[in-house]
Each structure stands twice: as C-alpha cells, then as structure tokens.
Amino acid sequence: MPSTIRTPLVLYTTLYAMTILLASSASAHHELTKEMAESPRSPDSTEKAVTVTRFLRDGGTNDDDIAHNEGRGFLSDKFATIAIKSGMKIALKSNKAPRHVLEHLVNTGNLLTEKNLFLWLKYVVNYRKKMGSIWADDVYVFKTLSDFLPAEKLPALFKAMEKNPNFRELGKNLQKLM
Predict the structure, then answer these.
(1) Hey, what's the signal peptide range on this chain (predicted)?
(2) Residue among 149, 145, 150 at smallest CA distance from 123
C-alpha cells in the first residue's frame, strides 16, 4: 500500500503538469489563426471546394473595436476590473495625479473602454474630494482625456457620461470645454 504522504505529492505533481500542458497548448499556435480553409458551398456539391480566408481571432477589418472584444473572456475581465479598482485605491492613498493613473492604465495594456474610463473618472471624482478640485479641475481632466483619446471619441464619452448620474455634471462641464 502506498504511503499517504506520497500519494498527494504525485497527485499534485500530475495536476501541475496537466495545467501547464493545457495552458501551453491553448496558447501555442497563435500564428495559425489566419489559415486558409477549404469548404464546399453545399454538402452535396460535386464541384471543387473554394478556398476562403477566415479570420478566426479577428473582426476581419482594420481599426475594428469588435476585433479586440471576445465574448469568452468575461472572467479575466472581472479580474482586470478588480485589479484596476484596487490599483486606483492604492494610487488615491498615495496621492497620484489622475494623469499619472491614466498613463499607468494605458501602459499596462488596458484598453480605454467606456468601463475603464468610468473607473478613471470615478478616481478623478474621489481625487477631487480628497485633494480639492483645484488640483484636478475640468480643464486638467479635459486635457488629460484629449491626450489619450482621439478627438472623435470624446463626444461619445461625454454622451455616456450624461447618462450616468455620477458623472452627469462633470460630462456637461467637459463638453463645454470642447
């Protein structure tokens, strides 16, 4: 009979190896996502199959916001949101300027989606409460946003801010500066 101490060690080692194998096999061949696929036009077709390029991980067009939005990553999105919120709490405790926080958000690879920008705007509101509105006035917030967002996306952000009761007044003030 095997020792009770050795059995969990073997089990954990096997689970660890399987986890590494699964993780590496799931992310190993990203260069093969734009392969050619042959498929006949109908199942009973006798003519030769037509070769079609299929984009498996892409929206199919350049500059497409949908291309970077896969519906399978909701769990990682939740963890990213929690990480961003906790990072902003730490930044608020250490009195980091809102521009520095937004720079850090961009430099860590986070896309400037509406949700992430609302998290940043919540940080700005909390920063104003703590430090006073003189340190992060509307002109400063508008300048920071315009440095990181294209000018054509700012009106959409301001419209979304007007729909959110927490940012309605700030959105109106920023829209006046445009």
Answers:
(1) 1-28
(2) 145
Summarised one tens digit per residue, pLDDT across range 146-165 is 999 998 999 999 999 999 99
Rounded Cα distance, 103 and 88, in Å: 12
Q: Are 119 and 80 in contact (CB under 8 A)?
A: no
SS3 of residue 37 by DSSP: strand
Say how many Å lie between the first and final Cα of the chain, rounded.
77
Separation of alpha carbons 15 and 13, rounded Å:
5
Q: C-alpha distances in angstroms, 73 versus 68, 69, 76, 94?
A: 11, 8, 5, 31
pTM for the structure as a whole: 0.59
Q: Is the pLDDT of residue 27 over 70?
A: no
3-state secondary structure of 52: strand
- For Cα atoms 95, 96, 102, give the angle at the middle one, nearest 5 degrees: 150
Q: What is the rounded distance in angstroms from the CA atom of residue 33 to the CA atom of residue 128?
A: 46
What are the beta bridge partners of residue 52?
37
Distance, C-alpha 90 to centroid of its chain: 20
Short-list 159, 35, 148, CA closest to 100? 148
CA-to-CA separations, 65 to 61, 69, 70, 156, 171, in angstroms, rounded: 9, 7, 10, 14, 23
Euclidean distance between CA atoms 88 and 98, whole angstroms: 10
Q: What span, in angstroms and rounded, lies between the C-alpha atoms of 19 and 13? A: 10
DSSP 166: T
